[in-house]
Amino acid sequence: MFNFEVFDFFDEIVILLEKLKIKRRNKLAEKYGINESIEIFSVFTFDKIDELVEHIFSEKDFKIRTKMYFFQISQTRDVVLSYNSSSNLLIIKDVTEIERLKEAKINFTTAVSHELFNPLSVIKANVYLLLDNKETVETALREIEKSVKRMERIIKQLKILSMLELGLYMPKYNEIDIEKVLKEVIEDLNMKIKAKSITIEKKIVQRYFRADGFLIYTILKNLISNAVKYSYKNSTVKIETIDNMIIIEDRGIGIKKEELEKVTERFYRTKDAIKMATGSGLGLSVVKHICSICNYKLKIESNYMMGTKVIVVLNT
Prior knowledge:
Blueprint: E1 13-18, E2 21-25, H1 27-31, E3 44-45, H2 49-57, E4 62-70, E5 75-84, E6 89-94, H3 96-132, H4 137-165, E7 174-177, H5 178-188, H6 190-195, E8 199-204, E9 208-211, H7 213-229, E10 236-242, E11 245-249, H8 271-276, H9 283-294, E12 297-303, E13 307-313
Parallel strand pairs: 8-10
Antiparallel strand pairs: 1-2, 1-6, 3-4, 4-5, 5-6, 7-9, 10-11, 11-13, 12-13
Keywords: Coiled coil, Kinase, Phosphoprotein, Transferase, Two-component regulatory system
Coiled coil: 134-161
Catalytic activity: ATP + protein L-histidine = ADP + protein N-phospho-L-histidine
């Protein structure tokens, strides 16, 4: 018989089974609330647990990558589970952090390609303009300078967003001028706004907020970008700041009631949104993530084919 104590040095959960009962478990298993002399049903569950039980009783090996819920720690984790019938060992590798890193990389790549495309297009167009007409040098150079500054800002934002994804960014609360932040956002979205002849109507009742300037900028940019993207041409997007609230309202395609809860999910896009405009489906999920970190409330009200109102309630 092997020396079970050696499994205390493993970075995986190791369980010695006697049918469905836990006979031995290593030290790491304790952190997940796994104790000896109890059945596996009282420790965790996952969608294919019946198949695991079948394999245990029929003495067949079993392996699956799945999401597993651990009762004692009240958490769902991404795991790779392996059952070895000859040794009666159940090995569970927690790959949650690996998955988070993969997801952060994917999100970063998506955001980089999407966000940097517009300023690069402006630079490219102005370079052609310079080559064709020397009289427009000063105007073109100013446009290039603005685009370069915007790219620098985007790169900084993407770096912080990646840190947010990994839980490495701590909000920095200062008094911010919302009018100044709005000016930057509208400037960045100017091409999109002009392309659809959208009127931006601002009502700044509360000008100063105590918040993280970058996170507020990111919230506003995502919400206003969505409002413009899914508005009808020649319509109005209203922006109001009052009583520690930021309110963005559009007259666009709206969201069906049955889809309202799903629109903050990462990469989710409604069928109407897909038809209306291109996008990654990340905007509202980023806003929801920031609101969660800062303990803000996010409310979405919508009338299908009539428009959407998004309210962010900041801490007082």
